[in-house]
Automatic annotation (TrEMBL):
The chain crosses the membrane at residues 12-30, 538-560. It comes from the Bacteria. It comes from Flavihumibacter petaseus NBRC 106054. Keywords: Membrane, Transmembrane, Transmembrane helix. Residues 196-503 form the ABC-type uncharacterised transport system domain. NCBIfam families: GldG. InterPro entries: ABC_transp_unknown (IPR019196), DUF7088 (IPR055396), Motility-assoc_ABC-rel_GldG (IPR019863). This is Putative ABC transporter substrate-binding protein. Residues 37-148 form the DUF7088 domain.
Amino acid sequence: MKSLLTSKYNWLILLILLIAINWLAALWPFRADLTAEKRYTLSKPSRKLLADLREPVTVDILLGGEMPAGFRKLANSTLDLMQEYKANGRSRFQYRFIKPGEGMNDTLKTILYDSLSRLGLRPTNIKAQTKEGEGQEERLVFPGAVISCQGRTTAIDLLQGVSAQGGLESLNKAEALLEYKFSNAIRQVTQDTVPLVGYLVGNGEPLNYQVFDLIEKVLKKDYAFRILPIDSVPAIPEVFSALLITKPTLAFNESQKLKLDQYVMQGGKLLWMIDNLYAEMDSLQRTQNEFIAFDRGLQLEDILFRYGVRINLDLVQDLNADKNPSVVGSVGGKPQIELLPWPYFPLLTSYSGHPVAKNLDYVVAQFPNSMDTVSAPGITKTILLSTSPESRVLASPARVTWQSIQTEDDLKTFNKGTIPVAMLLEGQFSSLYANRLSNEQQDAWQQASGKAFAKSSVPGKMIVISDGDIALNAVTQNEGPLPMGMNPYTKYQYANHDFIQNCVEYLVDNSGILESRSKDYTLRLLDKKKLEDGKVKWQLMNILIPVLIILIFGVSYQWIRKKKYQQQ
């Protein structure tokens, strides 16, 4: 060993050793994630997705160049994530950071920006440093990425679904959603088949521009899609992975409910979006003052009750609400209108931490009803969306008026705590008709549908939302259909689109990628009060301690040196 170390070829041995170490590190890359929330560790579904890539995937992140601190922090977090993706995807995963429009003339820039906008990427106008000493430039930045594989292309907006008004907290949520957004996009461009999702009609469900965003931007974009008239089939075909029941206005008869029940028993997934009371903005605008919300009579109480939930005949109000134009006075005989929070349009959020709704901005509802859970053996219930603690319930017959809060005593009644509006049900459902159909009726069902009558389901899941408007979009005369969840007056877009998209994905997708939405990035901010109180102390420590260390080192060195030479 000694001769080896003193050999004249030791440099060659060292070089070979270093090459071998680097080669082994390339084959089996290893990084230690020491963060408490495992911020830099990919979830198991994401690792499996990348390991199973059969074709090269290219990711272009549009965050190149100089940017303000917030965007730069987002870019750095994206770079960290891309390095993890590269380590798992190996040669089949490539990424790069680009500055859109760099080196292009104005015409080409306009074409490029228009293409990115059509992909769903929304630009933000920023001022950024160009080169040191050359001032700033004003340019558009697209906080997103374009993912491509075998001619298929999709885009993700890294800030979509999080509040644009939340500062550091919103940026932190955006970083927590990075893995889900990238993994979900990669899954979309690499999968060969997609689930079939149906839109049920036959009971007054809307088929107009109000469901444009739902059908065109959610269902048709990510899934095979069909409109299914419920009375056109003897039984709902099992080929449908999920069905959406969106704001029905006409009562369901027993034959229709039997079809839905047996679809669930065969493992079908349902997304219910139900308005039990008739309460529409059109009614308020026609009466100019107020109206009474009344029961639609949908006859769905018994089937939902059997599955474990009840939608009540009431209206929910919340002080944390979206803004609507309200008359606040009159000047010169003309009404003065301001945008004020309207309690009938509550802003919903998630307190359960379920990946369907976690890290989302508020979801806006319109005239929602309250929900209760009821006993249903074998069914697990998870509240996905609730009101704020400052909410109340108006029992039916509920009066809807522009000015529902007139005194301080009215404000004190908003004390009912969080009220559920969206519920996830999972488990083995029992049929509503298990002990209600005779043998002859069961035989008639089997003969008509070609399927045996089932009294209980295989393990399944459904989502019940007590607001039919949650998936509808506003339509204006000048702009046509707006994005789902966008206020037509303030132009602020809430997270309705992302929430409905997550609901459908959770029902039909078995890859588990949605689990990565449950990541929780802790925002560790300095305590401003402690920082201010101890400001002088820490400043003195940062100035004096380094000086003292240098002086001690200098004195010690001189003392040791003097003693050494005195002995000589």
